[in-house]
Amino acid sequence: MNVKVMVCYHRNTPRFRSDVLFPIHVGRALASEEAKAAMADMPGDDTGDNISAKNGSYCELTAIYWAWKNPALLGNPDYIGLCHYRRLLGVSPTLGMYVPGSPILGLRSPIGRGLRTTARLLVRCSVRADALLGTSFAVRKLTNKSTAAIRDACGRYDVVLPTAWRQNISRYDFWKANGIESDLVTTLDVVAERYPDMRQHFETTVYSNSGHYQNVSVMRADLWNEYAAWLFDVLYEVERRIGQDVQKRDAQRRRAYGYIGEYLTDIWLSYKKSSDSSLSVGELPLFFLSGVGGI
Question: What is the DSSP annotation of 188-200?
């Protein structure tokens, strides 16, 4: 079984690379020549059919688009997925790689993105990234654990997601606290107009207090292609409606489509599960590394 999970990089940090983990330089079309040279050992999302130049607002979704449109550049895998250089799928938060004397930075929760007062979950394995990744042994151990966990999960499930985050507020209220409410309302309008059967799944998802964030997932290739086609159909219409406003925002709020994508994954999957009872979905832990430097 050929499994390829893209590990998205936009900084020159230690590589998580294996027969499963596939480093990719996202937003390469926008990168400095220095960054391009530093990450020349990995493909960029600016090859083939791509939207690399939209990375400032689409974030890691430019890699999802790239894999959807250019599967041959991934080796035509049976499963396709995505994680990040700071968010590694399949590594347990009890990894136990504490480096004595290193300040613990924690497994950071997405609850309260943009609200810097948010608490962090401090666990014994989550050390400063520069200490943790400073040895080839640590990088290799993380790589091997992630690779084995993903490969095993793909042998048992059609879709693999990171463990759902549970919050004490609804995802809608979380969006209102951290984003621009009208962006989510516009997305609902687009889904309701273009995919009326999905409206209920949209509302159920956004008023839930749990969900899958980070745009991290692994899917059978046929499901990945179906999801990506739907995802970009929705997002392109959302962009058509709010794009002029998005371009006037600061860098954080220009990431609108990447943030919307975090909600659309669960909406699509909710609908898909309701129409296909045989669809199997599993979860793996997501290991967060804070304080990763680089170009």
Answer: HHHHHHH-GGGHH
- 3 state SS of 282: strand
Cβ atoms of 90 and 141 closer than 8 Å: no
With respect to residue 267, please indicate whether it lies within any of the assigned structural domains.
yes
DSSP of 96-132:
----TTPPB--B--STTTT-TT---B--TT-B-HHHH
- β-pairing, 281-284 with 159-162? parallel
For residue 41, being part of any structural domain is answered with no
pLDDT in 10s for each residue of the chain, 295 residues: 999 999 999 999 999 999 999 999 999 999 999 999 999 999 999 999 999 999 999 999 999 999 999 999 999 999 999 999 989 999 876 543 333 333 333 333 333 443 222 223 323 334 344 445 556 778 898 999 999 999 999 999 999 999 999 999 999 999 999 999 999 999 999 999 999 999 999 999 999 999 999 999 999 999 999 999 999 999 999 999 999 999 999 999 999 999 999 999 999 999 999 999 999 999 999 988 765 554 3
Can you give the pTM of this predicted structure? Answer: 0.87
From the list 125, 120, 157, 133, the residue with the least C-alpha distance to 284 is 157
Q: Cβ atoms within 10 A of the Cβ of 208, count?
A: 16
Cα separations in angstroms, 158 against 18, 55, 228, 263: 21, 28, 15, 20
Residue span of the structural domain in which 261 resides: 165-277
- Which one, of 172, 166, 207, 184, lies nearest residue 253 by Cα? 184
The partner residues of 3 in beta bridges, in order of sequence, read 79
Half-sphere exposure of 106 (CA within 13 A, CB side): 8
Count of the separate structural domains present in the chain:
1
Classify residue 79: in a domain, yes or no. Answer: no
Residue 217 in domain: yes
